[in-house]
Amino acid sequence: MLQRFPLRRLGRAVAVAMAASTHCAATSTPAPTSSGAAGTEPSPASLSGALYVRTDTDQTTVVSPLVHFRSDMGTAHVNIDIVYMADIWTSASVDVRTAATKVVREQRDEVDVGLDLESGLARAGLGYRYSHEVDYLSNSISLFAQYEAFQRSTTFAARASFAADQVGRSGDEFFSRELTTVGAWIGITQVLSRTSLAQISYEHRYSHGYMASPYRYVAINGQGVCRPGAEFCLPEVHPNVKVRQAAVLRFRQALGGQMSLGGGYRLYLDSWQIRSHTALADVGLAATDNWTLSLYYRGYRQNEAFFYRRQYDSIVGHPYLTRDRELSELSSHQGGLRAEYVREIPATGSTFTFGVLAALTRYAYGDFIGLDRVRGTEIGSTVGLTY
Q: Is 350 helix (H, G, I), strand (E, B) or coil?
């Protein structure tokens, strides 16, 4: 848990997204689809898996395997999802090096269980997530509801969640901190025409507890970098309350029968005075009856948190201290290519799905000592069988 930064979390996001291209887990957020509705018809059973690998110039490698099982429980109205994934993380990044550690290796294991019920135009579900690593334990529950109206052209959806986390420190059995997060999400997906649809959503999250890193130390009256035990170095201190808000607009437009365009924008604000903007764009092409290709781009930019400083000359007037690059001014650009193969197996009535992903990412830090650029390479694959 040395640093829970976006590059590490990206593994989970990409792996889940790739696996969900075959079937959407009950605990996931519904997204616009090119079919003209905000969901898909349930299938009797499916099994899919994904593998994501990321490496970057900051000497960090993330490997994330995922397995997803979905079944209708013997009835078309009740479905269960079980997802297991792991993040296997190896790093000698700038954060690790400045903590007087050569290489850190960690593994996070996560299990998600979701149950959803469908009745006519309505759907509701609940989910439970368990996540564990050597110095971090998380338990969360979520509730989800969805309703299709106006001849199924409009879909209203909402989700509420609660998470209780326990933060530890490797090698220190007496270090234990708590973090509680409550969240809510609402969204409307609207079919605009036979060839287009849009989605607008809003999310609100409230976190209370320990949100710093137990491993990071901040130099005082120094060069901005310090090692534990050095003079004028203090543990990182963050505010114990964080309120986050995000609004998202997404759309999809079909161009003929073979191509579609998608795009989106996300505005994020929080009580630490961070504001971020995310732009999304992609083009999809049905290359053959079985192959679908997608070229996508993601751009991101944020300002720094109100208490972030490149370096601290004194603790006077600074109740909060940080050496977290996530809280600095930063921007990123990612471009990638996805390919998916879908083939029905007539003799068995099954459907086989295979997908691959390749992407390049570039992070830029405008005011962080010791690191100004990170370039990452990502590859992934997914395979699924519906039967």
A: strand
